[in-house]
Amino acid sequence: MKFHQFFFWSILILLSFLLCIEDVAGQAGRGKGRINGVILDEQGNPVLGAKVVIQYSQDQTVQREISTDKKGQWAFLGLGSGIWKITASAEGYIPTTTATNVSQLGINPKITLTLKKMAQSQSSFIRDQESLNFIEKANQLFSEKKYDEAISLMQQFLEKNPKAYQAYINIGDCYREKGEFEKAIENYNWAIEEAKKDETTGKEMTAKALAAIGECHMRKGDFSSAQTFFKQSIDTYPENEALAYNVGEIFFSNQKHDEAIQYFTLATKIKPDWGPAYYKLGLVYLNKADYEKAIENLKKFLELEPNSEFAPTVKNMLEYLEKIKK
Fold this sequence. Notes:
4-stranded mixed sheet, alpha+beta, globular, 56% helix
């Protein structure tokens, strides 16, 4: 076997090992990672009792929640490596969302989220505050894969709060996980239609629903339609790097490397100092045996996140890749 052939297979084995480490380290979202932060209002004051929900990008059924203390602070322990979505909400405020890369070895940066006051028209979405408990219970049922029970609770919530159209996305997610894609898409479309009346968060909700429709088509094997909806999603809410990253993940997991590159690259353009997108670009290019671009992106990842738990392995990969250039 020629050296370059041997090297190619060695790299693939190393890549498989790296992905295995990543999967085990973040299995079910468990690990030794820690993140913390603070929730503030627009005047910079802490928001007491704000709900903070984190969701694991590799398994959206894995989520945890906590309430902020009198200083607006919160913290989560025992997290696995990878991207976690963070959503903060409080009564009378517009929910806000971000995403962060959690490392189990390095110190993760403190996260500050600002909640904006909800306009009167927005607060009217929730008529029955007590029914918010239905959402919490439904989220728990979803994480337990009890999708029919979760759907029932979300429908009860909608009966009490018919303008809270965001619940249609939750219902769609349940149908998607059940494999009932047409019902899922029907609920996502209802959310999109209602979002047209929401001047505050309508764009974000529309983008989320469009991406969810794209994932349904992807799971059905209709990659062309999936690409169409993913593009519409990004065009609707282009400032969200996590959205582009998640679309890239979907394509990468389906071995659609060129499409994955497109969306991971978009994530780097939206947020140039965000390491995870460069890391995934390095892996995708490595899969394509494009070593020059793999090196470029893996080096950028190390530059941005030198203390990442993946840094030692990435350094070893770079040493191998540099050899093939000689």
